Amino acid sequence: MDRRQRKTREAIFAAFTALLSQKEFAHITVGEIIDRADVGRATFYAHFETKEFLLKELCEELFCHIFDAAHGEACDHRHIFSCEAPDSVFLHLVQHLQRNDNHVLELLSCQSNDLFLRYFKTDLIKLVNTQLPLFAARKSDELPEAFWVDHIASVFVDTIRWWLDNGRRESPETITAYFLAAV
Amino acid sequence: MDRRQRKTREAIFAAFTALLSQKEFAHITVGEIIDRADVGRATFYAHFETKEFLLKELCEELFCHIFDAAHGEACDHRHIFSCEAPDSVFLHLVQHLQRNDNHVLELLSCQSNDLFLRYFKTDLIKLVNTQLPLFAARKSDELPEAFWVDHIASVFVDTIRWWLDNGRRESPETITAYFLAAV
DNA sequence: ACGTTACCGAATATACTGTTCCATAGCGAA
DNA sequence: TTCGCTATGGAACAGTATATTCGGTAACGT
To answer: Do B143 and A118 lie within an 8 Å CB cutoff?
Structure first.
């Protein structure tokens, strides 16, 4: 990829991320993004069709790192049948979210749009599918598998949102415990 | 209230509701609303400050009916210590949602915005607060009350959304059972 | 050093918002 | 019915945002 393209793309991502931590997605304009990124208007549209596509690509990039790490973790556990606490995948996920510098948390809060949440949940469902045995004891037989998986992912997102809306006072360990106790 | 005002208001509500069942809130313009409602631009802004306020007032009107009925039910149960299934409040809520002609279901689906969902959940939390004993057995002691109430409301909304996203194939009784089994 | 390509920046068409104006028709009350 | 009041219509308006177009320029990879 051309160095100019890469630099432009990164500048736009950086500007967009910074703006996202200040105001909600809906109120961010292309004008603001290109001002802060210091690129031309035409350049922006050469890279991204719309604001929404920009958000989508940003999500893909962010979640790629987060969930790849979590998935790797999940695979490790299955391979070596580790004796560690099997819920550590979700704990690591929360820890990753908290220490994260990419403003993912701001994006997950309800001040942002629900597009972001939908992308997040889509990836989360894949992760949950690898962790189903963890929740087998809690599952009532009458519940369809599809509902159950969606439910677990939903509760995780809801728990994170509750955490954020209430000032993130709890530690990642506590929040993970809440999640596992609630699901 | 002036008959003209009332008619205008109803025309705008009707047009807005019809549009909401066709496209998502964000893409609806004031121009479309006043075209369909057949009112002047100035008239719209005499009634509603913005599109968002229109949505808010519509929600208040819709939820007022739905939750008042549910609350009445809840009160009845407490007063007469009925022997009926104590989960009937939520069953009635789901039934009300299903038979509802006001397009509430379309609005609750993820195609709509999350403003609507937030308003819904706010009212739902009030209802859940009157029904806490129902869920007392499921609550782990380590969970804070505030988290628990929010969790129950979240699971209800998530269940309804799953129902809608999957084509509303299940009966209200089944969905209520799923909700109670999942929470 | 070369041809290619991304970029700038300025201009442009289009669309939506929210406000203002006055004339008019409908309203409630005497 | 009559009268004063007010909601409405219709149109114009400024302000803002989107998305596209263009030719000149500078940076790129080979």
So the answer is: no
Tell me the angle at which helices A145-165 and A172-182 cross, rounded to the nearest 10 degrees: 140
Asked if B106 and B20 touch (Cβ cutoff 8 Å), the reply is: yes
Give me the amino acid identity at A138: R
Sign, CA dihedral B33-B35-B41-B43, equals negative
Q: Residue A109's closest chain B neighbor by CA? A: B114
In tens, the pLDDT along B52-82 reads: 999 999 989 888 888 887 776 665 554 433 4
Tokens of A18: 């910074």
Is A30 in contact with A41 (CB distance < 8 Å)?
yes
Taking one residue from A and the other from B, the number of pairs with CB-CB distance under 8 angstroms is 61
Angle at alpha carbon of residue A130, lines to A125 and A131, rounded to 5°? 95
Q: For B109, name the nearest residue in chain A, comparing CA atoms only.
A: A114
SS3 A84: coil
**For the whole model, what pTM was predicted?**
0.85
Question: Any residues with CB less than 8 A from the CB of A144 and at least 6 apart, and which?
Answer: none
Which pair of structure tokens corresponds to residue B55? Answer: 């949505």
In this prediction, residue A167 has a pLDDT band, given cuts at 50, 70 and 90, of confident
Mind telling me how many Å the CA of B40 is from chain A's nearest CA?
A: 27
B118 in reach of chain A (CB within 8 A) = yes
Chain B positions touching A182 (Cβ under 8 A) are 143, 147-148, 151
Nearest CA in chain A to B121: A158
- Smallest CA–CA distance, residue A178 to chain B, in Å, is 6
Nearest-angstrom CA–CA distance, A58 and A17: 9
